[in-house]
Write a structure and sequence with these properties.
It is a single chain. The protein is an alpha/beta fold. The strands form four sheets. Strands 6-5-4-7-8 form a five-stranded parallel sheet. Strands 11-9-13-14 form a four-stranded parallel sheet. The longest helix is centred in the middle third of the chain and has 22 residues. 36% of the residues lie in helices and 14% in strands. The protein is globular.
């Protein structure tokens, strides 16, 4: 059940749970993007423990650990340099304008890329969404050591918003960590101008929501539960305060009922969910590759909550307060997190005008 939860929360890519956390300390939330010289290079960035990696020029052959890092690079315009990925995007999970390019990227592993294949890939950069890749390996063996990466000529960098999230000093209240990751990859790949465009668009989008929900007092903001239906129903998996989903929920003017757990994700009990009695429940479903199949998955998740004795009396269930927004754009760091903030805000605050521009 635990292994299923670790891999079930995102479309064809593993979710970033506490099992993916770094063993080292991470910088505080809102840490700055990498330093760069006036001409763009050298660029210096750090891992979750603060160890520095320097780039004198943009990488030319990139491997990504999963579709989250792949999507960021495609958004930045560096997708033509990606020579392989693990956890490839499932059909329908990428934005339509990126789908063909994403599908053309060679798949080096349906899950975590095997150590030997990664080290022999010919990459000069590995972008890691996980900080302890071996924990997600499912029997695929240990992750390469930093010494092995160096011997293979591969520089190893992380998405801090996910790989380092379990070591943050507090919850992710906004998308600053995600934006810093976009800027970091932009600096490393020489696409810093494009990164700034993407971040500016995200900030405009989120700003429209922030203005709209500012009129809602804190004690009147609805409580909200992200139900990871794809992780199974025997034991619910809570999205905690250090997860990107918490930032999305908070920015949308709602209150995450599991904000206080000191992790990214944590197994809880249905008794815990009943005690929280959320006003709204998001049906955490992966894109199934077709509108009909995805709709069916949402319907099955809702039917479970309506039929299960422990949940059918919840306020959200009685009132039909279900939010149908995909897991990928809620729990996986990326540009589209900002659009999810808008979608959640529109669902839970139907009386407010949120333009999302």
């Amino acid at each position: 059940m635990r292994a299923r939860a670790l891999c079930g929360l995102a479309a064809a890519l593993a979710l970033l749970t506490s099992a993916c956390a770094s063993d080292g300390g991470a910088p505080a939330s809102g840490a700055p993007a990498p330093a760069a010289a006036t001409g763009g290079f050298p660029v210096r960035t750090t891992d979750c423990a603060g160890t520095e990696t320097a780039f004198d020029a943009p990488p030319r052959r990139i491997v990504t650990s999963n579709a989250a890092a792949l999507e960021m690079l495609l958004q930045l315009g560096a997708g033509d340099r990606v020579i392989g990925t693990g956890f490839p995007p499932g059909t329908g999970t990428m934005p339509a304008e990126l789908a063909d390019r994403a599908a053309a990227v060679p798949v080096l592993g349906r899950g975590v890329i095997a150590k030997e294949k990664l080290l022999g890939s010919g990459a000069d950069l590995y972008v890691d969404t996980f900080a302890a890749m071996g924990a997600m390996g499912g029997g695929m063996g240990a992750a390469p050591t930093e010494q092995e990466f160096a011997a293979a000529g591969i520089k190893h960098v992380f998405l801090h918003s996910t790989a380092c999230a379990d070591r943050l000093e507090g919850p992710q209240q906004d998308l600053a960590e995600v934006e810093a990751d976009i800027r970091r990859l932009g600096a490393i790949t020489g696409t810093a101008a494009r990164a700034e465009e993407l971040v500016a668009r995200m900030e405009r989008t989120v700003g429209s929501v922030r203005t709209a929900v500012a009129t809602v007092p804190a004690d009147r903001r609805p409580s909200y539960f992200f139900f990871d239906a794809d992780a199974g129903t025997k034991q619910p998996m809570a999205a905690c305060g250090r997860q990107v989903a918490h930032a999305v929920i908070t920015l949308a003017g709602a209150r995450n009922v599991f904000a206080d757990c000191q992790a990214t994700f944590k197994p809880v009990s249905w008794e815990d969910v009943v005690a929280a009695d959320p006003d709204w429940i998001q049906l955490g479903v992966r894109n199934r590759g077709s509108e009909a199949e995805t709709r069916k998955a949402y319907e099955q998740a809702e039917a479970f909550l309506r039929d299960f004795p422990a949940t059918r009396g919840l306020r959200a269930v009685r009132e039909g307060h279900f939010v149908r927004i995909g897991s990928e754009v809620t729990t996986i760091a990326g540009v589209r997190n900002a659009d999810t903030v808008v979608a959640v805000a529109r669902a839970v605050h139907p009386g407010l005008t949120v333009d999302g521009r």
